[in-house]
Design goal:
The structure is a homodimer.
Chain A lengths: L7 E5 L2 H12 L5 H18 L6 E6 L5 E6 L2 H4 L6 H13 L11 E5 L5 H10 L3 E4 L5 H6 L10 H6 L4 E4 L3 H12 L10 H12 L2
Parallel strand pairs in A: 4-5, 5-6
Antiparallel strand pairs in A: 2-3, 2-4
Helix pairs in contact in A: 2-8, 4-5
Protein backbone atom coordinates (compact mmCIF):
# COMPACT_ATOMS: atom_id res chain seq x y z
CA UNK A 1 0.00 0.00 0.00
CA UNK A 2 1.22 3.50 -0.76
CA UNK A 3 0.93 6.37 1.68
CA UNK A 4 -2.16 8.01 0.26
CA UNK A 5 -5.14 7.43 2.53
CA UNK A 6 -8.79 8.01 1.64
CA UNK A 7 -10.11 11.39 2.77
CA UNK A 8 -13.80 11.15 1.86
CA UNK A 9 -16.52 8.75 0.84
CA UNK A 10 -19.96 9.06 -0.65
CA UNK A 11 -23.00 6.85 -1.04
CA UNK A 12 -25.86 7.11 -3.54
CA UNK A 13 -29.26 5.56 -3.97
CA UNK A 14 -29.46 3.04 -6.84
CA UNK A 15 -30.50 4.37 -10.25
CA UNK A 16 -33.86 2.58 -10.31
CA UNK A 17 -34.81 4.27 -7.05
CA UNK A 18 -33.56 7.71 -8.12
CA UNK A 19 -35.69 7.36 -11.25
CA UNK A 20 -38.76 6.67 -9.12
CA UNK A 21 -38.30 9.36 -6.47
CA UNK A 22 -40.67 11.93 -7.96
CA UNK A 23 -43.40 9.31 -8.17
CA UNK A 24 -42.74 8.14 -4.63
CA UNK A 25 -42.86 11.68 -3.28
CA UNK A 26 -46.32 12.06 -4.81
CA UNK A 27 -47.61 8.75 -3.41
CA UNK A 28 -50.15 8.91 -0.58
CA UNK A 29 -48.41 8.03 2.68
CA UNK A 30 -50.99 9.27 5.15
CA UNK A 31 -51.43 5.93 6.91
CA UNK A 32 -48.98 3.57 8.60
CA UNK A 33 -50.21 0.82 6.28
CA UNK A 34 -49.21 2.84 3.21
CA UNK A 35 -45.80 3.68 4.66
CA UNK A 36 -44.96 0.10 5.58
CA UNK A 37 -46.25 -1.17 2.22
CA UNK A 38 -43.78 1.13 0.46
CA UNK A 39 -40.92 -0.05 2.69
CA UNK A 40 -41.74 -3.71 1.97
CA UNK A 41 -42.01 -3.05 -1.77
CA UNK A 42 -38.66 -1.23 -1.96
CA UNK A 43 -36.96 -3.88 0.19
CA UNK A 44 -38.04 -6.55 -2.25
CA UNK A 45 -36.95 -4.58 -5.31
CA UNK A 46 -33.62 -3.75 -3.71
CA UNK A 47 -32.24 -7.23 -3.17
CA UNK A 48 -33.51 -8.37 -6.56
CA UNK A 49 -31.59 -5.47 -8.15
CA UNK A 50 -28.40 -6.67 -6.40
CA UNK A 51 -27.73 -3.48 -4.42
CA UNK A 52 -27.65 -5.16 -1.01
CA UNK A 53 -29.93 -6.82 1.52
CA UNK A 54 -33.75 -6.89 1.54
CA UNK A 55 -34.19 -3.74 3.58
CA UNK A 56 -35.71 -0.30 2.95
CA UNK A 57 -36.50 2.72 5.08
CA UNK A 58 -38.36 6.02 4.77
CA UNK A 59 -38.35 9.23 6.76
CA UNK A 60 -41.77 10.87 6.71
CA UNK A 61 -43.49 13.72 8.48
CA UNK A 62 -45.55 11.85 11.04
CA UNK A 63 -48.71 13.92 10.74
CA UNK A 64 -48.88 14.51 6.98
CA UNK A 65 -46.93 11.58 5.57
CA UNK A 66 -44.83 13.95 3.44
CA UNK A 67 -41.78 12.02 2.29
CA UNK A 68 -38.47 13.47 3.51
CA UNK A 69 -36.13 10.69 2.35
CA UNK A 70 -35.92 7.12 1.12
CA UNK A 71 -33.13 4.62 1.78
CA UNK A 72 -32.32 1.09 0.74
CA UNK A 73 -29.44 -1.17 1.74
CA UNK A 74 -26.52 -0.46 -0.61
CA UNK A 75 -23.72 -2.38 1.12
CA UNK A 76 -22.88 -4.30 -2.05
CA UNK A 77 -23.35 -1.34 -4.40
CA UNK A 78 -21.13 0.99 -2.35
CA UNK A 79 -18.64 -1.52 -0.84
CA UNK A 80 -19.39 0.14 2.52
CA UNK A 81 -20.66 -2.16 5.28
CA UNK A 82 -22.47 0.64 7.14
CA UNK A 83 -24.77 1.59 4.26
CA UNK A 84 -27.88 -0.09 5.60
CA UNK A 85 -31.31 1.25 4.59
CA UNK A 86 -31.75 3.20 7.83
CA UNK A 87 -28.33 4.86 7.55
CA UNK A 88 -29.15 5.97 4.02
CA UNK A 89 -32.63 7.26 4.88
CA UNK A 90 -31.46 9.14 8.01
CA UNK A 91 -28.39 10.64 6.30
CA UNK A 92 -30.38 11.67 3.22
CA UNK A 93 -33.04 13.27 5.43
CA UNK A 94 -30.29 15.23 7.20
CA UNK A 95 -28.86 16.27 3.82
CA UNK A 96 -32.24 17.48 2.63
CA UNK A 97 -33.03 19.41 5.80
CA UNK A 98 -29.46 20.63 6.28
CA UNK A 99 -29.15 19.65 9.92
CA UNK A 100 -27.92 16.76 12.08
CA UNK A 101 -30.92 16.90 14.43
CA UNK A 102 -34.03 15.86 12.52
CA UNK A 103 -36.11 16.76 15.57
CA UNK A 104 -35.05 20.40 15.64
CA UNK A 105 -37.36 23.27 14.67
CA UNK A 106 -40.42 21.41 15.94
CA UNK A 107 -40.21 18.64 13.33
CA UNK A 108 -41.96 15.37 14.21
CA UNK A 109 -40.41 12.85 11.82
CA UNK A 110 -40.86 9.09 11.72
CA UNK A 111 -38.46 6.42 10.49
CA UNK A 112 -40.34 3.58 8.79
CA UNK A 113 -38.45 0.30 8.19
CA UNK A 114 -39.50 -3.14 6.99
CA UNK A 115 -38.04 -4.75 10.13
CA UNK A 116 -36.40 -3.92 13.45
CA UNK A 117 -33.02 -2.18 12.88
CA UNK A 118 -29.78 -4.07 13.53
CA UNK A 119 -27.76 -2.87 16.50
CA UNK A 120 -25.84 -0.33 14.41
CA UNK A 121 -29.00 1.22 12.99
CA UNK A 122 -30.62 1.06 16.42
CA UNK A 123 -27.98 3.51 17.60
CA UNK A 124 -28.15 5.56 14.41
CA UNK A 125 -31.92 5.98 14.91
CA UNK A 126 -31.33 7.07 18.50
CA UNK A 127 -28.88 9.83 17.47
CA UNK A 128 -30.69 11.21 14.41
CA UNK A 129 -33.56 13.12 16.00
CA UNK A 130 -36.51 11.17 14.59
CA UNK A 131 -39.37 11.09 17.08
CA UNK A 132 -40.90 7.77 16.05
CA UNK A 133 -39.91 4.37 14.65
CA UNK A 134 -42.45 2.21 12.82
CA UNK A 135 -41.52 -1.33 11.79
CA UNK A 136 -43.33 -4.33 10.34
CA UNK A 137 -41.79 -6.79 12.78
CA UNK A 138 -39.03 -7.42 15.28
CA UNK A 139 -38.51 -11.17 15.66
CA UNK A 140 -35.75 -13.62 14.83
CA UNK A 141 -37.47 -14.45 11.54
CA UNK A 142 -35.19 -12.03 9.73
CA UNK A 143 -32.09 -13.91 10.91
CA UNK A 144 -33.62 -17.35 10.39
CA UNK A 145 -34.92 -16.62 6.90
CA UNK A 146 -32.07 -14.52 5.52
CA UNK A 147 -28.93 -15.56 7.41
CA UNK A 148 -28.08 -11.98 8.45
CA UNK A 149 -26.69 -11.32 11.92
CA UNK A 150 -28.58 -8.42 13.53
CA UNK A 151 -26.30 -8.11 16.56
CA UNK A 152 -27.05 -8.07 20.29
CA UNK A 153 -29.97 -5.77 21.11
CA UNK A 154 -30.84 -4.79 24.69
CA UNK A 155 -33.88 -6.66 26.06
CA UNK A 156 -35.70 -3.41 26.70
CA UNK A 157 -34.86 -1.91 23.32
CA UNK A 158 -38.25 -0.20 23.01
CA UNK A 159 -38.05 1.30 26.50
CA UNK A 160 -34.59 2.69 25.69
CA UNK A 161 -36.09 4.48 22.70
CA UNK A 162 -39.12 5.74 24.59
CA UNK A 163 -37.01 7.15 27.43
CA UNK A 164 -35.29 9.22 24.73
CA UNK A 165 -38.57 10.55 23.32
CA UNK A 166 -38.86 8.09 20.39
CA UNK A 167 -42.19 6.23 20.06
CA UNK A 168 -42.15 2.71 18.60
CA UNK A 169 -44.89 0.93 16.60
CA UNK A 170 -44.53 -2.71 15.58
CA UNK A 171 -46.50 -5.14 13.44
CA UNK A 172 -48.32 -3.53 10.51
CA UNK A 173 -47.41 -5.38 7.27
CA UNK A 174 -45.70 -8.21 9.16
CA UNK A 175 -46.75 -10.96 6.76
CA UNK A 176 -45.56 -9.07 3.68
CA UNK A 177 -42.21 -8.38 5.33
CA UNK A 178 -41.77 -12.08 6.05
CA UNK A 179 -42.47 -12.92 2.41
CA UNK A 180 -39.67 -10.61 1.29
CA UNK A 181 -37.21 -12.33 3.63
CA UNK A 182 -38.41 -15.75 2.56
CA UNK A 183 -37.82 -14.94 -1.11
CA UNK A 184 -34.37 -13.52 -0.34
CA UNK A 185 -33.44 -16.58 1.69
CA UNK A 186 -34.49 -18.91 -1.11
CA UNK A 187 -32.20 -17.10 -3.56
CA UNK A 188 -28.42 -17.19 -3.86
CA UNK A 189 -28.06 -13.49 -2.97
CA UNK A 190 -25.03 -12.42 -0.92
CA UNK A 191 -25.30 -12.23 2.88
CA UNK A 192 -22.80 -9.48 3.60
CA UNK A 193 -22.03 -9.84 7.31
CA UNK A 194 -18.26 -9.55 7.35
CA UNK A 195 -17.15 -12.99 8.41
CA UNK A 196 -14.46 -13.97 5.90
CA UNK A 197 -11.68 -12.96 8.27
CA UNK A 198 -13.24 -14.59 11.30
CA UNK A 199 -13.89 -17.80 9.36
CA UNK A 200 -10.29 -17.88 8.11
CA UNK A 201 -9.04 -17.43 11.68
CA UNK A 202 -11.21 -20.30 12.89
CA UNK A 203 -10.01 -22.54 10.07
CA UNK A 204 -6.36 -21.70 10.82
CA UNK A 205 -6.92 -22.33 14.51
CA UNK A 206 -8.65 -25.64 13.83
CA UNK A 207 -5.71 -26.59 11.61
CA UNK A 208 -3.31 -26.09 14.53
CA UNK A 209 -4.81 -28.99 16.46
CA UNK B 1 -40.71 21.34 0.98
CA UNK B 2 -40.55 20.67 -2.77
CA UNK B 3 -40.60 17.18 -4.18
CA UNK B 4 -36.89 16.75 -4.85
CA UNK B 5 -35.37 14.32 -2.39
CA UNK B 6 -31.67 13.85 -1.69
CA UNK B 7 -30.10 10.97 -3.61
CA UNK B 8 -26.58 10.89 -2.21
CA UNK B 9 -24.40 12.18 0.58
CA UNK B 10 -20.69 12.40 1.22
CA UNK B 11 -18.43 12.97 4.20
CA UNK B 12 -14.84 14.23 4.29
CA UNK B 13 -12.10 14.45 6.86
CA UNK B 14 -11.40 18.00 8.07
CA UNK B 15 -8.74 19.98 6.21
CA UNK B 16 -6.26 20.01 9.10
CA UNK B 17 -6.31 16.22 9.17
CA UNK B 18 -6.08 15.82 5.40
CA UNK B 19 -3.01 18.11 5.50
CA UNK B 20 -1.38 15.82 8.07
CA UNK B 21 -2.19 12.45 6.53
CA UNK B 22 1.16 11.87 4.84
CA UNK B 23 2.95 12.59 8.11
CA UNK B 24 0.60 10.31 10.03
CA UNK B 25 1.07 7.47 7.55
CA UNK B 26 4.84 7.69 8.13
CA UNK B 27 4.53 7.74 11.92
CA UNK B 28 5.61 4.62 13.82
CA UNK B 29 2.52 2.74 14.97
CA UNK B 30 4.07 -0.60 15.83
CA UNK B 31 2.86 -0.61 19.43
CA UNK B 32 -0.57 -0.31 20.99
CA UNK B 33 0.74 2.62 23.02
CA UNK B 34 1.66 4.53 19.85
CA UNK B 35 -1.70 3.79 18.24
CA UNK B 36 -3.73 4.92 21.22
CA UNK B 37 -1.55 8.01 21.67
CA UNK B 38 -2.39 9.05 18.11
CA UNK B 39 -6.12 8.46 18.68
CA UNK B 40 -6.05 10.56 21.86
CA UNK B 41 -4.10 13.34 20.13
CA UNK B 42 -6.48 13.51 17.15
CA UNK B 43 -9.54 13.38 19.43
CA UNK B 44 -8.27 16.42 21.28
CA UNK B 45 -7.44 18.36 18.12
CA UNK B 46 -10.81 17.48 16.62
CA UNK B 47 -13.14 19.03 19.16
CA UNK B 48 -10.91 22.09 19.48
CA UNK B 49 -11.19 22.54 15.69
CA UNK B 50 -15.01 22.46 16.00
CA UNK B 51 -15.59 19.47 13.72
CA UNK B 52 -17.50 17.39 16.25
CA UNK B 53 -16.99 15.44 19.46
CA UNK B 54 -13.67 14.49 21.13
CA UNK B 55 -13.31 11.18 19.34
CA UNK B 56 -10.84 9.71 16.85
CA UNK B 57 -10.24 6.28 15.35
CA UNK B 58 -7.63 4.50 13.22
CA UNK B 59 -7.64 1.33 11.20
CA UNK B 60 -4.19 -0.28 11.21
CA UNK B 61 -2.68 -3.56 10.13
CA UNK B 62 -2.44 -5.38 13.43
CA UNK B 63 0.99 -6.91 12.89
CA UNK B 64 2.85 -4.07 11.16
CA UNK B 65 0.95 -1.00 12.34
CA UNK B 66 0.63 0.23 8.75
CA UNK B 67 -2.07 2.90 8.72
CA UNK B 68 -5.09 2.05 6.56
CA UNK B 69 -7.38 4.93 7.54
CA UNK B 70 -7.97 7.70 10.05
CA UNK B 71 -11.32 9.04 11.23
CA UNK B 72 -12.53 11.78 13.52
CA UNK B 73 -16.03 12.75 14.57
CA UNK B 74 -17.44 15.15 11.98
CA UNK B 75 -21.10 15.32 13.03
CA UNK B 76 -21.03 19.11 13.22
CA UNK B 77 -18.87 19.59 10.10
CA UNK B 78 -21.07 17.34 7.93
CA UNK B 79 -24.50 17.88 9.54
CA UNK B 80 -24.82 14.07 9.62
CA UNK B 81 -25.44 12.49 13.02
CA UNK B 82 -23.88 9.14 12.04
CA UNK B 83 -20.45 10.52 11.20
CA UNK B 84 -18.71 9.38 14.36
CA UNK B 85 -14.97 8.71 14.28
CA UNK B 86 -15.40 4.95 13.94
CA UNK B 87 -17.85 5.28 11.03
CA UNK B 88 -15.39 7.55 9.23
CA UNK B 89 -12.37 5.31 9.86
CA UNK B 90 -14.19 2.09 8.86
CA UNK B 91 -15.78 3.61 5.75
CA UNK B 92 -12.51 5.22 4.63
CA UNK B 93 -10.68 1.92 5.14
CA UNK B 94 -13.30 0.22 2.97
CA UNK B 95 -12.90 2.95 0.34
CA UNK B 96 -9.15 2.52 0.31
CA UNK B 97 -9.25 -1.28 0.08
CA UNK B 98 -12.27 -1.33 -2.25
CA UNK B 99 -14.29 -3.88 -0.29
CA UNK B 100 -16.99 -4.02 2.38
CA UNK B 101 -15.30 -6.85 4.31
CA UNK B 102 -12.07 -5.54 5.81
CA UNK B 103 -11.25 -9.08 6.97
CA UNK B 104 -11.29 -10.58 3.47
CA UNK B 105 -8.12 -11.69 1.67
CA UNK B 106 -6.44 -12.67 4.92
CA UNK B 107 -6.27 -9.12 6.28
CA UNK B 108 -5.95 -8.77 10.06
CA UNK B 109 -6.98 -5.18 10.73
CA UNK B 110 -7.51 -3.44 14.04
CA UNK B 111 -9.80 -0.53 14.90
CA UNK B 112 -8.20 1.76 17.48
CA UNK B 113 -10.44 4.29 19.27
CA UNK B 114 -9.93 6.66 22.19
CA UNK B 115 -12.92 5.14 24.03
CA UNK B 116 -15.51 2.37 23.78
CA UNK B 117 -17.77 2.90 20.74
CA UNK B 118 -21.35 4.08 21.22
CA UNK B 119 -24.06 1.53 20.41
CA UNK B 120 -24.21 2.59 16.75
CA UNK B 121 -20.45 2.26 16.26
CA UNK B 122 -20.49 -0.99 18.25
CA UNK B 123 -22.64 -2.46 15.49
CA UNK B 124 -20.65 -0.78 12.73
CA UNK B 125 -17.46 -2.36 14.10
CA UNK B 126 -19.17 -5.76 14.17
CA UNK B 127 -20.18 -5.55 10.49
CA UNK B 128 -16.97 -4.09 9.02
CA UNK B 129 -14.62 -7.06 9.13
CA UNK B 130 -11.97 -5.71 11.49
CA UNK B 131 -10.52 -8.52 13.59
CA UNK B 132 -9.62 -6.49 16.68
CA UNK B 133 -10.79 -3.46 18.65
CA UNK B 134 -8.37 -1.54 20.90
CA UNK B 135 -9.68 1.24 23.14
CA UNK B 136 -8.26 3.41 25.90
CA UNK B 137 -11.26 2.89 28.21
CA UNK B 138 -14.86 1.79 28.48
CA UNK B 139 -16.43 3.36 31.54
CA UNK B 140 -19.15 5.93 32.20
CA UNK B 141 -16.50 8.65 32.47
CA UNK B 142 -17.13 9.63 28.86
CA UNK B 143 -20.80 10.32 29.58
CA UNK B 144 -20.14 11.98 32.94
CA UNK B 145 -17.38 14.25 31.66
CA UNK B 146 -18.76 15.16 28.23
CA UNK B 147 -22.56 14.86 28.47
CA UNK B 148 -22.81 12.52 25.46
CA UNK B 149 -25.28 9.64 25.53
CA UNK B 150 -23.53 6.42 24.40
CA UNK B 151 -26.69 4.32 24.25
CA UNK B 152 -27.57 0.94 25.80
CA UNK B 153 -24.75 -1.56 25.34
CA UNK B 154 -25.20 -5.26 26.12
CA UNK B 155 -23.60 -6.32 29.41
CA UNK B 156 -21.43 -8.87 27.64
CA UNK B 157 -20.39 -6.51 24.87
CA UNK B 158 -16.86 -7.92 24.72
CA UNK B 159 -18.08 -11.51 24.57
CA UNK B 160 -20.42 -10.60 21.69
CA UNK B 161 -17.40 -9.30 19.78
CA UNK B 162 -15.21 -12.27 20.60
CA UNK B 163 -17.85 -14.79 19.52
CA UNK B 164 -17.72 -13.03 16.14
CA UNK B 165 -13.93 -13.31 15.88
CA UNK B 166 -13.10 -9.77 17.06
CA UNK B 167 -10.55 -9.48 19.87
CA UNK B 168 -10.88 -6.58 22.33
CA UNK B 169 -8.14 -4.77 24.28
CA UNK B 170 -8.97 -2.08 26.85
CA UNK B 171 -6.99 0.34 28.97
CA UNK B 172 -3.78 1.59 27.37
CA UNK B 173 -3.71 5.41 27.42
CA UNK B 174 -6.72 5.59 29.75
CA UNK B 175 -5.53 8.64 31.69
CA UNK B 176 -4.80 10.65 28.55
CA UNK B 177 -8.24 9.81 27.14
CA UNK B 178 -9.88 11.06 30.33
CA UNK B 179 -7.97 14.33 30.08
CA UNK B 180 -9.36 14.93 26.59
CA UNK B 181 -12.93 14.40 27.83
CA UNK B 182 -12.32 16.60 30.85
CA UNK B 183 -11.10 19.48 28.66
CA UNK B 184 -14.07 19.04 26.31
CA UNK B 185 -16.53 19.00 29.21
CA UNK B 186 -15.04 22.19 30.66
CA UNK B 187 -15.55 24.01 27.34
CA UNK B 188 -18.77 25.28 25.77
CA UNK B 189 -18.49 22.88 22.80
CA UNK B 190 -21.72 21.43 21.36
CA UNK B 191 -23.00 18.05 22.63
CA UNK B 192 -24.76 16.78 19.50
CA UNK B 193 -27.05 14.03 20.79
CA UNK B 194 -30.30 14.83 19.00
CA UNK B 195 -32.59 15.86 21.84
CA UNK B 196 -34.14 19.13 20.68
CA UNK B 197 -37.29 17.36 19.52
CA UNK B 198 -37.57 15.18 22.60
CA UNK B 199 -37.05 18.16 24.88
CA UNK B 200 -39.70 20.17 23.05
CA UNK B 201 -42.14 17.25 23.38
CA UNK B 202 -41.46 17.01 27.11
CA UNK B 203 -41.95 20.74 27.55
CA UNK B 204 -45.23 20.64 25.63
CA UNK B 205 -46.40 17.66 27.64
CA UNK B 206 -45.46 19.33 30.93
CA UNK B 207 -47.41 22.39 29.79
CA UNK B 208 -50.56 20.27 29.47
CA UNK B 209 -50.74 19.62 33.21
Amino acid sequence: MDASLATDFSASLPGWLVDDLDDLAARPLGSIEERIALANELADRNWRAGNGGPFAALVVDRASGALVSVGVNVVLATDLSAMHAEMMALSLAQRRLGRWDLGAEGADLELVVNWRPCVMCYGATMWAGVRALTIAGEGVEVEELTGFDEGPMPDDWIGEFERRGIRVSVGVGHGDAIEVFRAFGASDAVVYNARAGAAAARDASAGDH
